[in-house]
Amino acid sequence: MRWVPGIAALFVLGPIAGALTASVRAADGGPEATALVSANPAMGVLAMLATVVLAAIVAIPTARFVNYRIATWAGAFVLTWGAWRQASLGDLVHVTRPDSPMFALAGEGLLTGLVGVVLATALVMAVPSKDARSPMRTVRGESGWVGFGLCALVTAVVAGAVCWVVVLEPLKGQAIFGAALGSFVGAAAGCWAASFVGVPPREPACFAGLALVATLGPVVAQVILGGEVIGATFAGHMPGFGSVIGLDWLAGGLMGAPAGVAMMEQMVHKHAVPAT
User: Fold this and answer.
1) Residue 82: which H helix or E strand, with range?
2) 51-87 residue pLDDT tens
3) Read out DSSP for 223-257?
């Protein structure tokens, strides 16, 4: 029973999600497109949202009735299919040149990031009350809001830094791997920072941080490179956080962020329980 959600996500819902994102066409009619960097951004956004809905269809009931970690991996499988069938940054600069796609990708990062916060919150709230992980614990009172913001900010900075180190080329595999690793390390660091103001580790704050880096990453890369985005991409000089597209962050985030939060929960609980 515990394997059914993952199998369904990997072999049924995932390919459907991949077909949806792959159906989005570039301005020249080719497949090198994403939600907003496409001939029809409205259809691109609908395809992206449909992919997230498919992930939610398998992940939310799994979190409720089976297991939270299995739920996050099942959802990540679906999202990874969708992200993999989208264009990479290296593909995009071929079809958008001489124009840069970075500001459109920033808008896409904001959109997918906000959807990610909603999905993460829904997953946490789906967990049965006896295993409550209520995200509202992160926003009750002044310290809750401070902790939420601190966790989001640290998650964004650390996740972006990790991607800068590990994503060396604008390839889809590196982008998703960098997003997963960056989300894991960033979420752990963000929850550790929030613990100093008494806020327990929670995924929604971490996904807010991923939304921040997904939005600002392309903008910062554009500012760093100036008018040399296309040349830098071809030469392999694009900062890693600029190569990770919105849906890459969402897929990688669902793989890595819950693991980082779980690790910090164990550490916080261990230090909170006095030795006997």
Assistant:
1) helix 68-85
2) 999 999 999 999 999 999 999 999 999 999 999 999 9
3) HHHTT-HHHHHHHT-S-HHHH--HHHHHHHHHHHH
Distance CA 129, CA 242 (A): 39
Cα angle 57-60-66, degrees, rounded to a multiple of 5: 115
Copy the structure tokens of residue 169. Answer: 């080329």
Q: Is the pLDDT of residue 28 over 50?
A: yes
**Contact at 8 Å (CB) between 248 and 180?**
no
The DSSP output letter for 130 is G
Residue with tokens 């889809």: 172
Torsion angle of the four alpha carbons 19, 219, 237, 167, in this order, in degrees rounded to the nearest 10: -50
Residue pLDDT, tens place only, 188-199: 999 999 888 877
Taking the C-alpha atoms of residue 251 and residue 210, their distance in angstroms, rounded to an integer, is 11
Report the alpha-carbon distance of residue 148 to residue 135 in Å, rounded: 10
Listed in sequence order, the residues at least 6 apart from 98 whose beta carbon sits closer than 8 Å to its beta carbon are: 230
* Structure-block tokens of residue 81: 């299919």
- The full set of domain ranges for the chain reads 4-272
Q: Report pLDDT digits (tens) over 244-272.
A: 999 999 999 999 999 999 998 887 666 55
Query: Would you say the pTM of this structure is higher than 0.70?
Result: yes
Instruction: Reduce the secondary structure of 77-116 to three states and give it as a string.
Output: HHHHHHHHHCCCHHHHHHHHCCCCCHHHHHHHHHHHHHHH
| 143 band by pLDDT with thresholds 50, 70 and 90 | low
C-alpha closest to that of 258 among 209, 217, 207, 213 = 207
Kindly report the number of other CB atoms within 10 A of residue 86's CB atom. 30
